[in-house]
Amino acid sequence: MEPLLILGLGNPGKDYALTRHNAGADYVDLLCSKYSLTLKKERQIQGQFAEFVNENYKLIFVIPSTYMNESGLCVSKTKKFFNLRTEQILIAHDELDLPNSEIKLKESGGHGGHNGLRSIIDHLQGDNSFKRLRIGIGKPEKDKDIISYVLKKASVEEREKLMSNLINYLDLGEKIIQDGWQKTVMNYHTIKEENNES
User: Fold this and answer.
1) Strand ranges, E, within 111-191
2) What is the pLDDT of residues 63-93, one digit of tens each?
3) Which among 27, 67, 135, 146 has most CB atoms closer than 10 A?
């Protein structure tokens, strides 16, 4: 039984809590709530982690203690700490190129200008074969600053919509381990299309 690491990107500290840039970390917090887990600090990985294990699967949840643009440090240390291959890693991150609350699964690829992903690829020495859960946060209005947009809290309405969509992905880790990546992606894609049609 191969474990799966789900690591949610964000910035540490109260100042960044609930900001758009912390969507990945928010997803991992939701997963920990689902499995009644508490993240604990581990200096060796420069992050916090929790594990859920049963006879069918092992899931490892991590939120880095580093800032977003140093996320790769935590990812590379976590990979070594748990003796994982890059393919066993799923990174949950905010995505400007998707409308708010739209969620997409992606396998490998570049960083698309995302500083967290850029740092991860750098620290994994160019290996970009990790999986991604891309969490749409929308884009700021034209001529508005992107950095201040991602570091701001979304409106209550925006956030509620995002969190309710993320709840649909709380079985993601189990499904990837049991059904494999391709089948899981197809299933989520089909469900999304059916929801759009109804």
Assistant:
1) 131-136
2) 999 999 999 999 999 999 999 999 999 999 9
3) 27
Nearest one of 12, 81, 89, 6 to 43, comparing CA atoms: 81
Catalytic-labelled residue, pool 21, 93, 114, 123:
21
Kindly write down the DSSP assignment for every residue of 88-113, as one continuous string: GEEEEEEETTS-TT-EEEEES---TT
Token pair 């998707």 is found at: 98
Long-range contacts, 37-45 (Cβ 8 Å, 24+): 37/61, 39/63, 41/65, 42/81, 44/77, 44/81, 45/74, 45/77, 45/78, 45/81
**Residue 58 half-sphere exposure toward CB, CA atoms < 13 A:** 7
21 catalytically annotated = yes
State the Cα–Cα distance between residues 198 and 91, nearest whole angstrom. Answer: 30
Rounded distance, CA 9 to CA 12, Å?
10
Domains of the chain from N-terminus onward: 4-197 (3.40.50.1470)
33 or 111: which carries more pLDDT confidence?
33
Spatial strand order in the sheet of 58-64: 40-42, 47-53, 58-64, 4-8, 89-95, 131-136, 103-107
- Token readout for 39 is 């993240």
Greatest distance between any 2 Cα atoms in the chain = 52
Residue among 66, 173, 77, 156 at smallest CA distance from 123: 77
* This prediction's pTM: 0.93
